[in-house]
Design brief:
mainly alpha, 2 domains, 0% strand
């Protein structure tokens, strides 16, 4: 692929990126301006003749990688829409797939991906791009990984609630679990309001 072809490909990717970001109901309003500024910067670098002439292949690849970080690291309905459009426009970009990682390692790479899977998997597994990419057996396995992730996280919180303390070695994990259960709106499934208040009190009183 020539330099010009690569640039044209990235610019098409920017268009898809912008369209989905502007309409997004998954990306919060504080983050959207950053993503739109990123596309503006990328377009400026790749359409300004004086800048383009100075770009080498490594710099062009870096611009592409920066643009793709979110779409490579998230699990969501809009992420699937992004990659479906990339495929339909025949843009030759390699996708990193968090769900493939989860299947291989039997866990999610980080709490953000766990949250995305828990929030969106019920819808995601009905989407053609996911059904085409994963076998029925793999879809069942992802279901199990999500359930195990949820159970493990609520288990950590319940232990801390029972002992009225957060072990120092578990502090970061506790914070991740609180973020997971909060973002996935699961507190009412497992705990009373009193339990939740007590957890926050334990968190506030943690001493390093």
């Amino acid at each position: 692929m020539t330099k010009i072809e690569k640039i044209e490909q990235i610019l098409k990717t920017v268009e898809i990126h912008e369209k989905i970001v502007r309409k997004s109901t998954e990306i919060d309003n504080e983050t959207k301006p950053y993503f739109l500024e990123l596309s503006k910067f990328t377009k400026d670098c790749l359409t300004n003749e004086s800048k383009v002439s100075k770009l080498n292949s490594y710099q062009i690849k870096s611009l592409e990688n920066e643009l793709l970080i979110y779409w490579n690291e998230t699990i969501s309905v809009e992420t699937e829409k992004f990659w479906t459009e990339i495929l339909s426009k025949k843009i030759n970009i390699q996708r990193k797939e968090p769900l493939k990682f989860a299947l291989d390692k039997k866990r999610f790479r980080n709490v953000e991906q766990g949250i995305g899977a828990r929030k969106y998997w019920s819808e995601l597994k009905t989407i053609n791009s996911v059904k085409d990419n994963f076998s029925k057996t793999e879809i069942v396995k992802i279901d199990q990984i999500i359930t195990e992730d949820e159970n493990k996280r609520i288990g950590i919180l319940e232990k801390c609630l029972t002992k009225k303390v957060i072990p120092k070695s578990q502090y970061l994990k506790f914070g991740e679990c609180m973020a997971y259960i909060t973002n996935c709106e699961l507190f009412s499934k497992y705990m009373t309001e009193k339990d939740v208040d007590e957890l926050h009190e334990i968190w506030r009183n943690f001493k390093s």
